[in-house]
Amino acid sequence: MPSEFELIARYFTRATSHTLLGVGDDGALIAPTPGHELVISSDMLVEGTHFLADTDPADLGWKTLAVNLSDIAAMGARPRWATLAVALPAVDEAWLACFARGFFACASEFGIDLIGGDTTRGPRNFCVTIFGEVASGCALRRSGAKAGDDIWVSGRPGRAALGLAHLQGRFRLDEPELADCIAALQRPQPRVALGLALQGLATAAIDVSDGLLADLGHILEASGVAAQLKVAVAPASTFARDAWLAGGDDYELVFTLPTAKHADIAALSQTLGLALTCIGRIEEGPAGRFDITDADGTRIEAPRRGYDHFMSLPEAGTVSPDA
Ligand code: ADP
Ligand code: MG
């Protein structure tokens, strides 16, 4: 049985590219870029709560880092360094090797150095702290949305929730929708390039980890405004619509900006090869209030304010591909 230190050396120590001192001492040393601010965020993934026990370990390794990258993206920052605290019930080296492979695939794709962490025995969970950099004064916050701004979202929220519902037998997806939704659930793509490009454009931004309504709700509350929201998914079923409005785990970005910036967003969508959709407008009104209309224009009630860890979606049906 390998020691804790052998595990760290074998699975969590890799060459770094922009770190003074990484894994192996009592602390890491980093030198932030002059003229920049550090953005720091932590997210924990707990077995049974954030991932199913039989999740592919390489996918889990990817996702453990990707969900943290998403927070850095939402701040408009460049991800740079991460630490990783790991609790494992027992040492399973084959499992750990796959987890590390997925984790470092994500790290190298997004330019992250893993600079430290902790390794201990316990119920399986993973906690990353991530460090990003943003030019001083340029971070995107939740609090800048103004009445009259348009509301935009990247990609198509709800796919991860549909993928999970399919795996749990609560909903049936057919190809090609199935592969798309499972990929969204297991290998989320943090919108780092989008976040960086929104610097100086967006008035507010957040990533969709708990569901569109819940997370956009945070922008409304932080900014002291209300919103008109139009469902931008084909009304194939109430289930699909509710996943769009309230499904969690998507890691798309929601952001606001003045109508005068529409052309910039259209150009950005082209450059990034990423769908960017205008889904509503910020209004004066009670902070956090939503007026929601369905894709066909009828007013609807919110299914619930947002995702929580005990979310249950309506009964099973099927979804047809997006219009
Ligand atoms: P200490 O006892 O001084 O806290 P540890 O024995 O916990 O140190 O860790 C030894 C080194 O390995 C430290 O540099 C720590 O940051 C690093 N480390 C421990 N676990 C991990 C991990 N899962 N991923 C990356 N680095 C880790
Ligand atoms: Mg330690």
| Gyration radius over CA | 20 Å
Gap between N and C termini, in Å?
A: 54 Å
Biggest β-sheet description:
7 strands, mixed
Oligomer: single chain
Neighbour order of strands in the largest sheet? 6-8-5-9-7-10-11
In terms of DSSP E residues, the strand content is 15-25%
Count of helical stretches? 9
Order of helices and strands: HEHEHEEEHHHEHEHEHEEE
Uncertain segments:
307-323
Quick structural gist:
The chain has 323 residues and is α+β, with helices and mostly antiparallel strands. 31% of the residues lie in helices and 23% in strands. The chain is built from 9 helices and 11 strands.
Topology:
Elements: H1 4-11, E1 36-46, H2 57-74, E2 78-88, H3 93-109, E3 113-121, E4 125-135, E5 150-154, H4 159-167, H5 177-186, H6 192-197, E6 204-207, H7 212-223, E7 226-230, H8 238-246, E8 253-257, H9 262-272, E9 276-283, E10 290-293, E11 299-300
Parallel strand pairs: 2-3, 7-10
Antiparallel strand pairs: 1-4, 2-4, 5-8, 5-9, 6-8, 7-9, 10-11
Structure description:
The chain has 323 residues and is α+β, with helices and mostly antiparallel strands. The chain is built from 9 helices and 11 strands. The chain has a 7-stranded mixed sheet, sandwiched between helices. Strands 1-4-2-3 form a 4-stranded mixed sheet, covered by helices on one side. A hairpin with a 5-residue loop joins strand 10 and strand 11. Helix 2 packs parallel to helix 3 and helix 4 packs across helix 5. The chain is globular and about 60 Å long. The site of adenosine-5'-diphosphate (ADP) has 13 residues, from strand 2 and strand 3. Adenosine-5'-diphosphate binds next to strand 2 and strand 3.
